[in-house]
Amino acid sequence: MKKNNLGQRFINVGCGAHPIKGWINYDFNFFIFFSKVRIIREILNRLKCIPNGYKIFMDQVINENIKFANAGKHIPEKDNSVHVIYSSHMLEHLDSEETEVFLSESKRILVNDGIIRIVVPDFEKLINNYQKNKNPQKFIEDSCLSGEKPKTLIKKIQYIVQGHGWHFCMYNRKSIIELFKKHGFSNIKVIPPGETMISQTEGLDLYAHENSSLYLEANC
User: Fold this and answer.
1) How far is CA 103 from its chain centroid?
2) Is 215 helix (H, G, I), strand (E, B) or coil?
3) For residues 39 and 78, what is the distance between their CA atoms, to the nearest angstrom?
4) What is the pLDDT of residues 18-65, one digit of tens each?
5) Residue 217 near residue 115, CB atoms below 8 Å
C-alpha cells in the first residue's frame, strides 16, 4: 500500500496528464490498459494517427503508475483508508447520477476528518465573462457544454474509446456547497487559490486553473 511520508494515503482522482508524484493517481482513460501491455504500447507509439498527447500519457502511466478508475461508478479504495482526495476539473464531467456516486464513494473511503479538495470551473466567472464580451459562441467554447463533432474516422474511434470532454454539470459557490452538505461533509469551505487544509502539498498545484475555478475543501 503506497503512503506518503506521514504514513497517510493521498489520492488524485481524474489526474489526466497531471499526476502528482508520490500520490496514488487515478484516471478514466482506456489508454491506461493499452500502455501496460508493452507490445500494444509500442505499436500505438509508432502509429502516426495516434495524437502525441496519448503517447505522452502512456509514458506517464508507466512512469507514475497511473491506475484506472471510473469515479462515477466506483473508486477502488477500501473503506476508511484514504486521508486526502484531490480532484481537479473532473467533477463537472460527471452527470448527476455519477456525481452522487462519486461523493458517496468519497465518503466511504475517507477516514474520519479526512480531507477532500475539489477544483471545478466557476460558472459565475463564465457568466461575468459573457456579460463583458457578449459572445455566445465563446461562452459555449469556454464552458465546454458542447464540442466539435467527430467527423474523421480517427476522431470517431477516439470518441468510441474515450468519449468526449464535455461538461454535464456546472457549479457556483452556492450550488457546490449545497451539494457537499447534502452528502454529509463538514467544515465545507470555498477557499482562495493557494490555501488548503492539506498538510503535505509537495507536487500539488494549489493554483490550478486559477483564473476560471472554484476551490472547495471539506472534511468527511
Assistant:
1) 13
2) strand
3) 32
4) 899 999 999 998 888 888 877 877 777 777 767 777 787 888 888 889
5) yes
